[in-house]
Each structure stands twice: as C-alpha cells, then as structure tokens.
Amino acid sequence: MDSVYVHIPFCLAKKCLYCDFVSMPYSPPVAQRYLGALSREIALLKEAGDFLAGPQDKLAVKSLFIGGGTPTVLETRQLEELLDLLGKNFVFQQGSGVGAGAGAEVTIEVNPATIDTEKSSTLLKGGVNRISIGVQSFSGPELKTLGRLHTSRDALDAVKTVKDAGFENISIDLIYGIPGQRVEDWRRTLETALALGVRHVSAYELTLEEHTPLSGLVEKGALRMPEEDEVVRLYFLAEEMLEAAGFVHYEVSNYALAGRESLHNLNYWRRGEYLGLGAAAHSFKRASQRFFSTEGAPRNGKRWKNADGIFRYMDLLEKDVLPAEEIFLLTPEEEKREFVFLGLRTREGISVSDGRDLFGPDMEKEAGLLVKEGLLEMSRGFIRASRAGFPVLDAIILRLLAGLGL
Hints:
Oligomer: single chain
CATH topology of the largest domain: pyruvate-formate lyase- activating enzyme
Distance between the termini: 29 Å
C-alpha cells in the first residue's frame, strides 16, 4: 500500500459556505465515538487479512494524510489518541513508527483558528512532519464571503505557531475566483503568502458545488461569480508570482519549492494504491489483490468508498461491519480514462510509451492535434499540458478522451 488517508469529519461551529465535504460541527462525545470507530475499522481490516503484512503486523506505507473537516479541532488528548492509533498500525517503508525514516511524509490539515502551541507540540511528537494550513485568503472580506471563521491575523499566527514548534515543511491553501475578488486583492494574498516562507502553496479555483450555501447565494443573485477571463487572469498571476519566487508548478493547482512536492497527492495522480479510513473515505487497489474480491471478477483495479453518513459509519463498525458501501471494479476503459485525466494534471504529464501501450498510435495522433493548437506539448517522452493549456485542462482532457473513443 502506497498511502493512507484518514478522514476526520469535524469542523468548527459551521461549515464554510462553499464546502460539500462530509463533516459536522465538532462535538467531543461524537468525536470520541468516531475515534473508536476508526480503531475498529483498522482492526476489522486486519482480521479480514486485507492489510499488507508489515513489521509487527503493521501496514507498510509511504505517506499518510489526515484530512477533514478540520482534524485539529479535536482536543489535544484526542489528537494524541489518534496519532497513537496510527503509530500502532502503520509503519513507513523507510523507517518505523509514524513519521520515521527518510522520505516519509505525514501530513495533517489545520484550520488557523484551531492550532496552538500545545497542539503543535503534540503533532510533532506524534510523528507529523508536514502541515497543510487552510488559509484560503488574507483578505477579511473574502474570508467572510467564503464563510471562514478565522481571520487573516489567525492565519499569520498559525504559520508562526507551527514554525516555532519546529515544523519546516508547511503548505498553505489559497482560493481564487472568489466573488468580488480583484486582481490587486489576489496579488496581496500571494505576496503575504510568499513573505511567510512556506514550502508549498495550493492555489485552487473556487468552484460552485451543488446544494452549498454559496451556490444558493449565487443562484439568488446575491453574489456574482467572476467571468472565465477574470479567473484565467488570476490563475496566471499566481503562476507568475510563485514561479518567480522559485516555486515549481508541478500540478495544475499546486506549487512547491524543489523537493517539497506533496508525495501523498502525487501518489493519487500517478494512480498509486491508497487506503481511506473514516466516513466517506475513498480507497484504490490494483488488480489481483484480496480487497473485497468476488468470484470471476475482472483483474482490474478496484475503488471503494466508505459510508457517507458519519453516524452510519459509526453504527456499522459498532456492529463489526466494514463500512465500504460503494465498490467499483474498474473496466479497462475506465482505467485508460484515469491514466489520461490524472496524469495530465501534473507538469510531468503522461508517458508516450505507456500511452502507446494502452492506445496504440492513436494517443500520439490525437495528442498531436492538440499540440498544433498549443494546448499540449510533447518532449522527452512525455505528453503534458502547455502553459496555455493548464488553465483549460478539463476541456483538453475531454477532447483527447473523445478522440481516443472514450
């Protein structure tokens, strides 16, 4: 198993206006019950023999990511319990214990309003070595539009707090394309981010998710989403400023200083295996493994998703039932689609050789048409999005897949 993701579905008093992740306001007793369910999920997977054997019956993995929700909304003692649970069940292939070993990556997501010196110390002692802070913006009005419950000051203080605790590998999330956001506002946010000396920046375009409060406000006319050309301008400003500061644009929404790319996320984009634990968590396993095997099933990859409902997830595990409720056996066509749309998200792109194995000469033929338009480029054995193509990557992928008969 390459990676493990652990979903902690608790946040502050209310969800952000744009969020459609599975989460609920933090409740100490519900969170305690949830930690018990996580422990039981791991135990049941081990009993079923679906874990790869590792030293001392631990699962050997390369990266671990604790996301949410807001994991750091947990009380300090609950964070200690969570990290202890993970340390007892997982070992990195280049070391022993959570976070040990050269190259091991253990990330936790942090909301600026939920981190302090005590929690930072707990995370560091527990083996976390990478912090991802959900800043989103350094503009007060923009934070209000997004429904964030932290301030710009909170974000600045959060970065200082984790730095003072001893963390060096720090990432921050930013959002552009916010209703009312001006170019100068986005520039100031980027300047502030760069001044903090972080090693990684994720810059996401705001997308309207159905049934979110933000979507409702836009539908009612209370807010206006920016036009596409405005969004593209913000995209290129981020690329220009971050690259000038030495960041590598290694994925459509991600920038990193050399050697600080997110190993966990790269594993997703490269179709590596991963195990998801917790409510609504997703997992992927390649062919011919034992996970949820069925007689006569095709020898292709499998994806599965745990129960969406937080209480349903806990109820199932308290009855000693594994919570995987949606299991998909990937067809060859689906695997080919994934090869294209995941690989093209990265600056590395997709291998011409692998594409030839999957599609024959059609891959180079269809990609060549997009190369002529300046949307893709081919060099050193790889097909990748051009600088002009990255902002319209979804449309490029759809065209390429259509040309390949997918």
